[in-house]
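Q: A reviewer asked whether we had any structural model of the full assembly, not just the individual parts. We don't, so I'm hoping you can provide one. Inputs are below.
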Amino acid sequence: MLVNSRRRDNIRGLLFSALLSTVSLAFCADIPQTRLQSTTLRETSQFTYYWQTTPVGETAQLLTLFRGASEPNRDRAADMPLVTVLRDTLGDKNPENDRVSYVWLLSYVRPNLGQRLLSAVPFFYWRVTDGPKSLNEHGAAPLLNVTAPQHPVVSEIGRNILQWTMLDPMTTPVRATSRAYRSNESDDERLHLEEAINYLRNAPVGDKDSELTEVQLDTILARLELRKRLLGGFVSERRAAQLGQEDGFEQERIRSRNWELLRQCAEKTGLLFEPLNLGGREGQYAVVWFPLGQAFESSGASLTPIWKLLNLKNPWDDARLKQWHGRVYERSLDENGSLLPPGATGSQPVRLVPLGVYSLNYPRLPLLLVDFRDTLHVRRHEMTQRTINEITSGVIGISHFTNWYYYVAADLYDFIKARHGAAMNQAARLDCYSQFRVELALDHSLDPVLREQMRHYVHSLAINPLQGSPDREIELAKTRFALLQADAQEDGDLAAQLDKDRRAELAEFGENRRARILGDVLHEISFGLYTHRVRQQPDEIAALDRDRRIRYQLSFLDSLADAGTQPEIAYDSSHIHAALIELSDLMAGVKSPTLRAHVGSTVARVRELSRDTALQADCSQALVAVNGQEKPSTAAVSSGLAASTNTVASVGASLDAHK
Amino acid sequence: MSRVFALFCIIFSFGARPAISQSQATPIAPTPARRIVILKIDGLNADLLYGTMRSRDPVTGKSLLPWFSHLFAENGVVFENFYTRGISLSAPSWSMLDTGRHSIIRGNVEYDRFTGHVYDYLNFFPFYIGYARSRHVDMPGVEVLDRAGIPLLSDRFEYDQRFQGFQLYQRGVRWHTLEHVLEHRFSSKVLVSMLESAGAPSLDQLLAEETEGELKKSLRNPEILYLDFFTGDMDHEGHATNDPAALLHALRQLDALVGRIWTAIEESSTARETLFVAVSDHGMNNVPSIFSESFSLPDFLNRQQGGAHHVITNRHQLSEFKLMGLNPMVQRVTNPSTASFYLKGEAAHYPTAWLDLDGNERASVHLRNSDLNKIHILLLELARPDLQKTIRRAAAACLRETIDRHRAAWSETAAELDQEMTALKKVIEERKKAVLNLPKKWTAEQLARGEDKAARRLADELDDWQQEQTEYSGYALRLRALLALQDDPEHPFRQRVSDYIPEHSLGENNSVAQIEHYVVGPGVEGFVLDTDGRVDEEKSFRYVNYFSVLADQRVRNNPQPALSARPIDFSAMRVPDDRYDPAIDSPVHAYWLYASEDAQLLILQDDGGRIAVKPIQRLVQGADGKVHWSPQEWRRGLPLHLFEDAQLHVPENPDRAAWLSEWHTERDWLGAVHMSQYSNGVIGITEQFSPFPPDIPGPQGIDPILLRYERRRRELVQPDFEVFAADHWNFNVRNFNPGGNHGGFFRISTHSVWMMSGAGLQARTISEPCDSLSFASTLLSLAGRVPSMPSAR
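A: Here is a predicted structure for the entire assembly that you could use as a starting point for your response.
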C-alpha cells in the first residue's frame, strides 16, 4: 500500500518500533521505455525542466518532472527525475474532470533504523551516514496526498496530544528522547517538503495532456507549503490554489528585497556583491567577496548594524585576511570598480577572498549559509538553538501550557534579536538550507573549486541524524522513479490505490460538512484502517466524471457569484451559458440536498447579478432543472435589489421544501 | 483658452451618448453629473494599465481587466496622455489633484528651515493619535492647505454631502470604521484563517474592505454627492516587485473593485447622474527583470567627502532592523556622522543636513546655511583658551565680517518676524476667546453638519499658532543675539554657542555660490593667516562643491548592466530672481539643472508663463551675487536629454535646437515633450521650484502681515536643491523598493491614469496631453460647479 505506508510509518516512528526490511529492486528490472510519452519544456539558463508522462492504466497518469542540461544534443538518460505527481484523468482529454492526488519526491529516502535510533538521542547533532544505499519496501510512498491534506494534520495533532499527555509526564529520558526524535523527524520532513517545492517552482505549466495546469501546480505548491504548518491541511481547495499563487509572488518579493539589501550592505562596507546562478536558478543566492590589498574609505556612520545584518565579523579588521593562506580568486574590475564576470578582462585585476554565501529566500534578510572564515559559525548557531530547545522542552520539561510565560519571553527575545538583524526563524532557515544543499549537489556551472569549498561548509550544516547525503538521495531518485513506473503497470499497486481513492471520492461527494468531519475522525482513530468508500460499481468512471464536472462548473459559477458584479462583463456570456447548461444536465442525477441547495443559491445569485436577459433566462432554466419547479425570471422584468430579494427568497423557500 | 474649458470641449465634442449597461434599450438624455465618485489609485502607471486593458484573456474571452475596459475604454473617456505635474510623488501630486491648484506641498516630508518643524504628510499614525486626543482634525497636508486658503475638491460639497475614504488629504477620522476593522481582525473567520496559517487579511486589507462597505452604503444615500475611495495597493506592489504576474494579480484585484463600485452605483437611485472617475497620482518606474537600486545620500553626507554632516531623515534607515523602527510616531531621525569635522557628539543638537528621501527617485537636500557653519566653527575656535592671540584676533575679525555680510538681510528678517509675531499674538488672543465660547456638547444636527469638527479645527489652529509663536520668536531672538554679538578678541569666547546659533535650525537657504563652495569644517591645518594677518578662508575651512561631488558619485556594487554606475542624474535649484544676468530675454524666474560642469540647462519662465530652455555650461555665482555661465549649442547628454530624444515632437522649421531655445507656451511644451523620456520635466521643474507666494491666496480676509507670514512659512520649506536619480536608481534608505520607484520626471513615473464614465459622457479616447492641474477643475465643471482654477498660470 503506497499511501497508507506513510501513516503507518509515523505510528511506528512514534512508538520507536520502525521495522526495516530489505529493499527489493525487482520492480525496476524491466521498465519499458516505450511507455514514456510526451514532454513539455521550461528552460532556465543552464537547465531544462520538463514533464514526462507515464500512463497508469487507461484512466490516470504519472507526471514526472525532469531536469536536464539545456544542450539540445544531450544524453537524456543523464536527466534527473525530481518529482512525480499522480493525475487521475478518467481516461479523457477534458481537464475539467482531472484530479491530482499524490506527490512523490523522488530523491526522498526513508531513514534506516540506525539513523532513527540516533535521531532519538538528545543533543546528538551529527549526520553519521550518507543514508540508505537502496530503497526499502516503502520506497514508493508519496510525500503528500493532495486530496486528503487534513489527514496528516489530524495525525499530527494526535501525536502532539500523545506527547503532552503521556510522554512528557514520564521520566526525563523518555521525554527528551521522544522530543528529540520528533523534532528531527519533523525537520527531516520539512527539508524534503521544501525540496519538492523548490523543484516544482521550475515546472512548466499549460493545458496540454503532458503537463500540469497552472491551477493544479499552484494547488500542489500550496498544499506542500501548508503541510509545514500545523493546521494548514484544513485550508479549502479554492483558497489553497490562491495561496499557491500568492506564495510565489511573495517569494519573488522576498528574493528581490534581499538581493537589494545585500547589495546595499556590500556597498556600505566596501565589499563586492555577486549574485550566483546555482543549479540553473538565477539570483537565489549571492556571494560577498573581500578585495585583497584594497583600502576601505572610512564610512561616516557606524557599520556595526550592517555587520550584524551580514552576520560577519568585520573583515577590514581581520588580521588573517591580511596574510590570507586560503584560496584566492583572480578577477577583474571595470573602470568604476565593479566586479566583472569570471573570465572577463577589465581595467584592473583584483584578488578576491569569498567571505560568505547567502540565500536570498529567507523571509526577512539574506541568510548566511557559508562563512568561509569560520567553518563552524553557522553550525554553532543552529546547534545552540537546538540545544536550548532540547534543554527547555526535553530535559527541564517546560510546557507551552503551564510555563507559557517562558515562551512569551523567548518569543520576545527572538523578536528583539530579529529586529537587530538576526535570522531567528529556525524553520525558514531550514527551508533555505534545504534548497541550497540540493542546488549545490546538482550544480555544474560554478567554479569547481568554489563549489567544492561550499560543499565542504554545507556538509557541516547537517545536524539532523535522519538526514542523508544529497548526492546519495539524487543517486536513488532514478531507482525510485523506476519503482513508481513499475507500480503504474496494470497489475501494480497504483491502480488498486486509485480505485480505492475513487470510491472514497464518490462517497464524499455531496456529503455535508458534519458527515465529512465524522469520516475523517473515524479514519484517523482507526489509524487509517477505516475509510468511507462506496462499493465497487461498474459505472464508477461515469459517476466520477459527472461529480467532478459538477464541482468544476459549480466552482466557476461560485467565483462569479462571489465577485458580486455582472458576470457577463468578466466572462464571455457563452462561457457562462455553457456552464449553466452543463450543470443543469449533470444535476439531474444528483440527490444530495446539500449540493442542490448550493447549486440553487449560486445560480440564483448569478441571475440576480446579471443584466443580460438571455443569461438570466439560462439561470432560470437551470434553477428549474435543479429545483424541479419553475421560477419566474423576475430580473428580466425589473432590475435591481427588489428583484434579487424576491429571487433569493423564493429559492430559499424551495430549498426548504426540498429538505 | 483655459485648460479646463479646452478639456470640457474635448470631452463633450461628440455630444451625449446613452448611459451604459443598466438600460441599454432606453437611451437617456445627457445629464450633468450631480454626483461624483472618484477611485483614487496611488502609483498606477498608465502604460501598464492601458496595455493590460488591451490584452485579451483567452480563458474569459474578455479583456484581462474587463471592468476597466468595459466602463472606461468602451463606454467612457480615457485620457491617454495624462501626467503628473511637478515631481511624481504622492503628497504633491494628490494635493494638485485634490485642489486643482498649483502645488504648495512639494515633498512627502518638508522641514521648516528656521524651526526644524517637520511636515510629515504620509504618516497616518500621529494623525490618528492626535485626532483621538482632540489635537488634530485633519491630516497635515489638509492643515497646510487650509492655512494657505486653498480648498479641497471635496470642500466644494457640503459636509453632509460627502463621503471621504482614508487618504493623504483627509478631513476627520471615522472611528466606527476603525472599530469595525478591529472587530473583524478578531472575528472567527480571521482567527481560523490565522490558525490555518492561510494568510489572514492584514489591517490594511480589512480597512479597505470596511471602507468599501461604507462607500456602498453611502452610495445608497442620494444626498451624498461626493464620494471617494483611496487605494495604495498598486503603489505598494509596484515598489515591492517587478514580477509581471504579481502586478497583473494586483491589477485584477483593482479591476474587481471597479466592478463592485460600479455595481453599487448602478443600484443607487442617482446612477444616471453619477460620474465615476478613476485617477492615479503618478506612474511607477517598474520594468520587468530590472531591480531598482538605491544610493544612500545619508551615507554620502555622513562621509568626509560629503561634508561629514549629522543628517536628519524622517524615518530610520533600514527601519525593519531597528527596534526604534517600530515607533509609528517617528518624524525626525538623526543619523550621526562618526567623521564630523567640528560637531562630534553634537548630532542631537546640530544636524546640518536634512533630507526628504521619501521621494525615491528624487531627494530634496536642505543644508545649514554655509555661513552659519562658518560662524559656528569660528565660535568654537574662539572658545579655545589655547588659541594664539594673532589667530584669535583674526578669527574674531572674520566672525564680524561674516555677520556683517548678512546684517542687512538678517535685520530685515528679524524685523519682519517681529511684525508677524505681533500680528499672530493678536489673532491668538482673539482665537482664545472664540475657543472659550465654543459649545462643549453638540446636538445630533450639529454633528451631522460637522460643526464639532469645525470648532476643533479652530482650537487646533490656535495650538499650532502658539507653538509657532514660541519657535519663530526663539529663532528671531538668536538672530538678533548674533547681530549684536560683541566678541572680545583678546579672551576666549565663554558663552553658549546655542544662544547664538539655534539648534535644529538651518537658517536661510544657501545661494548657488554657497552650495558650490560649502563650508563643512575647519581646515586641515586649522586656522591659517594670510600675509595681512587675516584668516585665509580658503585654507582655514574645508569646502565641498555639492553639485560636482554628487555628479561624480559612482557605485561599485552595480551588477545590472542596464543601470549606469552613476546614480545621480542631475541636481536642480532655482536661481534667485534678481541674481542672474538680465541680458537673456528678461525672464521672471530661472531654474538651473546640473549634470556636470559641461552639461547644464537653464529653464526660464516669463511673466506670461512662457518657457524657454537654454543649454549652458559652468554656471557660477560671482562675488557680486550675480550668476554667470557660458552658453553652448544644443547637443546630446544635457539634462533631460531633450535634444537627442526621438520622441520629442517639435516642428521641422525652425530646427530642433532653435525650437528648444525659443519661448513657448506650456501647452506647446507639453505637446512637444510629453512622449519623451522625461515627459513634462521642463514644466515639472517650473512647478516644483517656482516661488510659493503667488500660489498662496490665504484664507479670506486675512491680515496682510499674516498672509506674508503664511507665505514665509511655505518659503521656509524650500530645499537648497533637489537631486534626481538616474534611471532605475532611487534614494530610499528606509527599506527597499527593488520593484520600482517614482518621484522623478521619467515618463514612466509621471504617466498617470485619468478615466471617467457615466453621467452622459460619450465614449472616447483623448490623446491630447494634459496634467494634474486640469483634473479637479474639469470635474467641478462637469458637475456644474465653479472650477478651482479656470485658467493656467
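A: Points you may want to mention in the reply: Confidence is low (pLDDT under 50) at residues 14-29 of chain B. The radius of gyration of chain B is 28 Å.
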